[in-house]
Amino acid sequence: MRPLPGTIICTWAELQVTGTVLYRQDGFEGFVILDDYVPRGYVDACPHNGMPLGGDQEESDYQTREQDVILCRWHGASFLKDSGLCIGGPCAGEHLASWPVERRGDEVVTV
Ligand code: FES
C-alpha cells in the first residue's frame, strides 16, 4: 500500500548527498531520485518484468555514474528522471509508475 500523503520519506540533505533514497514499507517499494533540484518519486518496479530496478537494492545502483538517467540493473533499461519514460532497453517507450513527492522545507514527503 502506498504511504499516505504527507509521509516523510527522507531529509532533503540526505537526498542531496545520495542522489537516490529507497523506501520500503508495508509491501510498498518506491524510490526518490534527485533531478537537479527536484525530487522525483517512482514505484520501484521495472516495466519490463516488475523487478526492483536496483538489483541488490543499493541506492548507488539506481543511476548511471553521471547521474543523468535512471538505470535498471537487470537488463539495462534506462529512464528519464523527469518523466520515467524508458528511452532504451527492453521496455523502451514504457514508463515507470509515478509516485508523487515534493520537498517541504528540510524534508521530502509524499503528495
Ligand atoms: S527488469 Fe528492468 S530491464 Fe529487465
Tell me about this structure.
With 111 residues, this protein is mostly beta strands. The chain has a single domain, classed as Rieske [2Fe-2S] iron-sulphur domain (Rieske Iron-sulfur Protein, 3-layer Sandwich). The protein has 1 helix and 9 strands, in the order βαββββββββ. The strands form 3 sheets. The protein has a 3-stranded antiparallel sheet with strand order 1-9-8. A 3-stranded antiparallel sheet has the order 2-3-4, covered by helices on one side. A hairpin with a 6-residue loop joins strand 5 and strand 6. The longest helix has 7 residues. 29% of the residues are buried. FE2/S2 (inorganic) cluster binds next to loops.
List descriptors.
111 residues; mainly beta; Rieske Iron-sulfur Protein; 3-stranded antiparallel sheet; 9 strands; binds FE2/S2 (inorganic) cluster; Rieske_2Fe-2S; metal-binding; Rieske (2Fe-2S) iron-sulfur domain protein; iron
Proportion in β-strands: 35-45%
Find the structural class using helix and strand composition.
Answer: mainly beta
Strand order, sheet with most strands: 1-9-8
Q: Helix share of residues?
A: under 10%
Q: In terms of per-residue confidence, which ranges show pLDDT below 50 for 5 or more consecutive residues? A: none
Please describe the biggest sheet, giving its number of strands, its sense, and whether it closes into a barrel.
3 strands, antiparallel
Gross CATH architecture:
3-layer Sandwich
The domain tally reads: 1
